[in-house]
Every structure is written in C-alpha cells, then in structure tokens.
Amino acid sequence: MLTHLDSQGRANMVDVTDKATTSREAVAEARVRMRPETLRLIQQGGHPKGDVFAVARIAGIQAAKKTHDLIPLCHPLLLTGIRVELEADGEDRVRIVARCKLAGQTGVEMEALTAASVAALTLYDMCKAVDRGMVIEGIRVLEKRGGKSGDYQAEEGA
C-alpha cells in the first residue's frame, strides 16, 4: 500500500523501490484570464518585457524539473520529456498545457501541474504592470498514462 504516512502516522516519502519501471506521461493545464488589450499586446509582440510566452514556457520547463524542491515528499525524477505550450483561448484568456514524460517508478502528474502553474505565474508576473486584475484558474490534470493505477482522462469542460 502506498501512503505518505509511516506506521506511527508521520509523513514520509513513499518508497517506490519495488515498483516496476514503466513509461509514464501526464498532461496538465492552467488558464490565465486577462483584459483583451493585454492579450493583444502579448500577441503583437509589443510587451515591454519581450516575448512573454517564451519566458513563461521556459519557466514552466524549469519548474517541472524542480518539482521535488517545491512540493514536499515528491520524488526527484529524471524527466525524459517536458513540453509547455501557451496559446490564446478566446480574446481574454491564455491556455497553458504542460506535458511531462519519463520511464520510472512513479507518476509525473505533479511535474505537469507544477509546469502549468509556474508558467501561469510567470505570465502574471510579466504582465502585472499592465493588468493587475488577471486571474489564474482551471489548474488540473487532463491526462495520465502508465503506472499501476492506470490511465486517466479528464472529462471535457469539467
């Protein structure tokens, strides 16, 4: 049984020593709602801080690699693939999709969630001077493949 609690009820990292190494992948998303003029500024390349999407993408990738430093009890993982994409979602939102992959003994959901979250936070940080009312929302796992618990697919629009 996998648990973060030991026999005395204390928090510990789950021991995955005896788990099989399998191919694992997770996809997570986040959305950032902003004023339409803020999104237009980003899309037209006129933001004073440069290419906002490129910086947020790099921040998401770096965050996925450091998830174990940010989230207590997460295993340090050797990710074999990280992809972070940002795109306009309508006239006032950016959708961020993060995909993490590895061959290992534990899943990568936390890495994908961290990548999407940090990319969203970076987008906020870079744009807050022009739009303080931005809202980060909808952070969730979209897909998970591999591992003992099997596959998962989020319901559309949930």
Describe the secondary structure blueprint for this structure:
Elements: E1 22-33, H1 36-43, H2 52-65, H3 67-70, E2 81-88, E3 93-104, H4 109-127, E4 135-145, E5 152-153
Antiparallel strand pairs: 1-3, 1-4, 2-3, 4-5
Entry keywords:
five-stranded antiparallel β-sheet, 28% helix, 158 residues, 5 strands, 4 helices, Alpha-Beta Plaits, elongated, alpha+beta
Describe, in plain words, how this protein is organized in 3D.
The model has no long low-confidence stretch (mean pLDDT about 90). The chain has a five-stranded antiparallel sheet with strand order 2-3-1-4-5, covered by helices on one side. It contains four helices and five strands. The relative contact order is 0.26. Strand 2 and strand 3 form a beta hairpin. It has one domain: Molybdopterin cofactor biosynthesis C (MoaC) domain (Alpha-Beta Plaits), CATH 3.30.70.640. It is α+β, with helices and mostly antiparallel strands. It catalyses: (8S)-3',8-cyclo-7,8-dihydroguanosine 5'-triphosphate = cyclic pyranopterin phosphate + diphosphate. Keywords: Lyase, Molybdenum cofactor biosynthesis. This is Cyclic pyranopterin monophosphate synthase. Belongs to the MoaC family.
